[in-house]
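Quick one, T. Sequence first:
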Amino acid sequence: MMNSRTKLSLGPVLYYWDRDTLFDFYKRIAETQIDIVYLGETVCSKRKLLRRDDWLEIAHQLQAAGKEVVLSSMTLIEANSELAALKTLCSRLEFMIEANDISAVQLLKGKPFVSGAAINLYNPRSLRVLARHGLKRWVLPVELSKQSLADMQKEKPGNIETEVLVYGRLPLAYSARCFTARSHNLPKDDCQYRCLDDPDGLLLSTQENKKFLILNGIQTQSAKTNNLISELDEIINLEVDILRINPPSKHCEKIINIFYQSLHNNYPALKASQELEALMPPGGACNGYWHGDSGMNYQTSKQEPLLCHQQI
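Structure tokens:
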């Protein structure tokens, strides 16, 4: 497969990394083949080791390296202070904003914006409504199948780009309660920033010792890593414009390179899949939602895909 038109994006870092780690990480990302980088804290407003000016400094460095930069909003707005910060973010015109909460969509009315995967866009009519408000790109909700995407693509407005998460742990739910703090018997208001201890989240296993979920503050993720490298031909045929990678704490540059080589240099799909699985954090791989199956399942390319609608 070779497709020079399809772009690669890097989603915002979903975990809590210290300031030096983030600056070093994005310095390395600037040297990769990634086309679009999403920046900002999307999970917890208490994660403030990077201030607004720090994020903007990183944004300008990435922009100077030829990357398109998008600033991402919080996903769950719980306090007036968070709403005030959102208003400030949405007032900036220098960079496009990824709206991860419908309040951000309201504030961005009339400006170009991206709708994140947490915005529940399940039908073309919703896309058309948001397009009238300024939507330029939408990210497929992670629980939708390829058949649902195909249906959406047939009727979506022609000027809207489509983005699909092709690699990374799946954000599944958000809560007002901080499960990371609770796991340490700490109240949310005195969490002692324990998220810093887990650069890829806190792994939760079942009583049968099967890796099940990831606790990431108020966010719950899949323990398995969504990996659609073997489905790239299908994705390209569905005229998806952008492939998103959610960054883990390790091997991100290698992961980006594997997807780049797969898109542009006919890299063997089986080899790419094997290499990605070797780089994954603990938990294994999944792609069930894409096939209209249970999200935690994993279908190899030899299996027949399930062409049913996936809903939650």
